[in-house]
Amino acid sequence: MVKIRDIELGDFPLLLAPMEDVSDPPFRALCKENGADLMYTEFISSEGLIRDAVKSVEKLDIFEYERPVGIQIFGNDIESMKLATEITAKTNPDIIDINYGCPVKKVACKGSGAGILQDIPKMVKMTAEIVKSTSLPVTVKTRLGWDEDTKFIVEVAERLQDVGIEGISIHGRTRKQMYKGEADWSLIAEVKNNPRMHIPVFGNGDIDTPEKAVLYKEKYGVDGIMIGRASIGYPWIFNEIKHYQQTGQHLAKPTLDQRVEVARRHLEMSVKWKGEKLAIVEMKRHYSNYFKGIPHFKAYRSKLVTTFDLNEVYDTLDEVAEKFKGVELLV
Question: Mean pLDDT over residues 260-268, rounded?
Answer without folding.
Answer: 97
